[in-house]
From TrEMBL:
Protein name, as recorded: Signal recognition particle protein
Domain comment quoted from the record: Composed of three domains: the N-terminal N domain, which is responsible for interactions with the ribosome, the central G domain, which binds GTP, and the C-terminal M domain, which binds the RNA and the signal sequence of the RNC.
Family affiliation: Belongs to the GTP-binding SRP family. SRP54 subfamily.
Assembly and oligomerization: Part of the signal recognition particle protein translocation system, which is composed of SRP and FtsY.
Protein's organism: Agromyces intestinalis
Keyword Methyltransferase: no
Residues of the full protein shown: 2 to 446 of 528
Catalytic activity: GTP + H2O = GDP + phosphate + H(+)
């Protein structure tokens, strides 16, 4: 899907960032270089890439990162914020005229998806309580009027079109008459479909520009096919010079486009992306949210969790605390439980271990690790009194029976747990003295 490769590449880049301590200038440069390459390979326009990476670099070297608890997460946040910025920042909604009808003109190359968009937009507006009229001003493409009538009827919206036989009419006139018709019949929105050519040409621009002048639209939406990659910027600029537009619609975001168009156009033209089209059906359409798109690209939830997990499970400070405890022989069942819970908190721990060099052995141990074991351990330990958790010597027969009942386990289960804890505590002491480390219940690493 669109952005798939870019997302993977960026995620890969962040994996290499250290989660602890300061980032050196060369850490940052390495990361920025990888981001730059990933963006260029995704067809993002060079000026946009340069600007983007310069901002990320500057911020990543600044205080907000060096003072952060977790520099890697901070860098990901910065990349996210800068992505939102190049996608236009705030969401921009469609603007309606104070005095209806609101006139919306569509412009763009042939095949960009204008006619389809007219239907999508009409359907969307009907849902929001509007009464749109579609106007067929694309008199160039032989089947365009008919196609608009088809999407119009699918959307349940009327279409204003020149009389049949009179088809080689004047698109500017049709557009004007369409708006007049909307006023007469009290439609509150008019959507004008216009002609596109396969490439940018002067005549096309002039026609579109004349339609604009004649109808004075509240919105001119430039529809661009996300699949056209590097050409997106030149096309967008040509339309900006020739017709100018108030907003952008990205179409075909469902395809295999590499995403460059989406990431370049708002930034290069300074015009917001208002809608995204994601399929041929009339419902494959959504208002564009820069922040949501950025998180989709970055898989932000996933990346941040991954970094967090890596930190949690291998938290040096926590490890130091445990070591201190061991040294002073204070390792308790509470600590034991906490360790197990950390392991579970790490959730997708195998995925995470992919990030660590030389974790193969540990990974094998984890393959044999049973999640249910943690649940059982939790139940038993939580049925103990705080005093019992501090000192297992208190656990006589009747106490063990009470704990078994309280946790829904057998006395044998309780005995086994206490035994395993005592073994673990012993092993941990070995670790504290520099012996072979072990995760409780899992044998030596
Ligand atoms: P126009 O020449 O700009 O009016 O473009 P059309 O609306 O006729 O669309 C050209 C082709 O692209 C048609 O086959 C549409 O079904 C298809 N299309 C339009 N929007 C999308 C989209 O978001 N995703 C996909 N996959 N196809 C689309």
């Amino acid at each position: 899907a669109t952005f798939g490769t870019l997302s993977d590449r960026l995620a890969e880049t962040f994996k290499h960032l250290r989660t602890k301590g300061k980032l050196s200038a060369s850490d940052v440069d390495g990361t920025v270089r990888e981001i730059r390459r990933a963006l260029l390979d995704a067809d993002v326009a060079l000026p946009v890439v340069k600007d983007f990476t310069a901002k990320v670099r500057e911020r990543a070297l600044g205080d907000e990162v060096n003072q952060a608890l977790n520099p890697a997460q901070q860098v990901v946040q910065i990349v996210n914020e800068e992505l939102v910025a190049i996608l236009g920042g705030q969401q921009r909604r469609l603007q309606f005229a104070k005095n209806p009808p609101t006139v919306i003109m569509l412009a763009g190359l042939q095949g960009a998806g204008k006619t389809t968009l007219a239907g999508k937009l009409a359907k969307h507006l009907v849902k929001e309580g509007h009464t749109p009229l579609l106007v067929a001003s694309d008199l160039q493409r032989p089947n365009a009027v008919n196609q608009l009538q088809v999407v119009g009827s699918q959307a349940g919206v009327p279409v204003y079109a020149p009389e049949p036989g009179n088809g080689v009419g004047d698109p500017v006139r049709v557009a004007k008459d369409g708006v007049a018709q909307a006023e007469r019949s009290q439609h509150d929105v008019v959507i004008i479909d216009t002609a596109g050519r396969l490439g940018v040409d002067a005549e096309l621009m002039k026609q579109a520009s004349n339609i604009r002048k004649a109808t004075n639209p509240d919105e001119v939406l430039f529809v661009i096919d996300a699949m056209i990659g590097q050409d997106a910027v030149a096309t967008a600029k040509a339309f900006q010079d020739g017709v100018d537009f108030t907003g952008v619609v990205l179409s075909k975001l469902d395809g295999d486009a590499r995403g460059g168009a989406a990431l370049s156009v708002a930034s290069v033209t300074g015009r917001p992306i208002i809608f995204a089209s994601t399929g041929e059906g009339l419902d494959d359409f959504e208002p564009f949210h820069p922040d949501r798109m950025a998180s989709r690209i970055l898989d932000l939830g996933d990346i941040l969790t991954l970094i967090e997990q890596a930190q949690q499970a291998f938290d040096e400070e926590e490890a130091m605390k445990v070591a201190e405890k061991l040294a002073s022989e204070q390792f308790t069942l509470d600590d034991f439980l906490k360790q197990m819970q950390q392991l579970r908190g790490a959730g997708n721990i195998k995925k995470m271990l992919g990030m660590l060099p030389g974790a193969g052995g540990l990974r094998q141990q984890l393959d044999q690790f049973d999640e249910r074991e943690i649940v059982r351990t939790e139940a038993i330990i939580q049925s103990m009194t705080p005093a019992e958790r501090q000192n297992t010597k208190l656990l006589n027969g009747s106490r063990r029976l009470r704990i078994a009942k309280g946790s829904g386990m057998t006395v044998t289960d309780v005995n086994q747990l206490v035994q395993r804890f005592e073994q673990a505590a012993k092993m941990m002491k070995t670790v504290a003295r520099g012996g072979t480390p072990q995760i409780p219940g899992m044998g030596p690493i």
